[in-house]
Specification:
single chain, alpha/beta, 3-stranded parallel sheet, 7 strands, 46% helix
Length: 211
């Protein structure tokens, strides 16, 4: 679902740039092409940078695949096409006004080139935590994930379909994350999935050490 530009956001950004003489404006995740254009016109020398969490139009396509596979599709084709087209158009439009994009994966960096981004930097995720003290449990694997994010959901479904009927009776896939409804549904559908819910950092460390 597209996120509308919050009321008053332009005035807040405008005031902050004036007050601080900012050299950069960072957009966290959301795409607001009209806001970028207005800021470009007023502050032509202020650099605009998008901190990307992924390409929404790609997520939309993956979500449509899931809907078809699970027979939960409830969008008429013209409606889905219009939604996807609007999202893609907004993504392309904002790339006209921003100066750089920071991405989290090489794939997103390549897609950003296609969208027209001028400068792209892939920033690998850095793990600063101390190493786990491994205490692996035989035939136990696991994953922590945002379960309603379409790429995550689609990947888990494909993995579980591939494993079903091919793993031993003692094999367990321990799933951590939210929302609960998604995790519980996967555990009900696949006998080898054990859903643990959302864990605290320490609980997750203890759990992941057994995978």
């Amino acid at each position: 679902t597209k996120v509308a530009e919050p009321p008053g956001l332009f005035q807040k950004v405008h005031s902050a740039v004036r007050r601080t003489n900012a050299e950069f404006i960072f957009f966290g995740m959301n795409v607001f092409p009209e806001l970028s254009l207005k800021l470009r016109r007023i502050f032509p020398d202020v650099r605009q940078v998008l901190l990307s969490h992924g390409i929404e139009s790609i997520d939309f396509c993956i979500e449509q695949q899931i809907r078809r596979r699970t027979r939960t599709e409830n969008r008429y084709r013209p409606v889905a096409a219009q939604m996807l087209g609007r999202e893609l158009f907004d993504e392309v439009e904002q790339r006209r006004w921003i100066d750089a994009v920071l991405t989290l994966s090489p794939l997103d960096a390549e897609v950003e080139k296609w969208l027209g981004s001028r400068r792209i930097l892939w920033v690998p995720r850095t793990i600063m935590e101390r190493r786990l003290e491994a205490q692996p449990v035989d035939q136990r694997v696991g994953c922590v994930s945002t379960l309603d994010h379409p790429p995550n959901s689609n990947g888990l479904l494909q993995l579980f379909d591939a494993l079903e009927g091919k793993v031993s009776r003692n094999f367990r896939f321990r799933l951590v994350g939210s929302p609960t409804s998604q995790g519980s549904a996967l555990a009900e559908r696949y006998a080898f999935v054990e859903y643990l819910g959302a864990l605290s950092d320490e609980q997750l460390r203890a759990e992941a050490a057994t995978w």
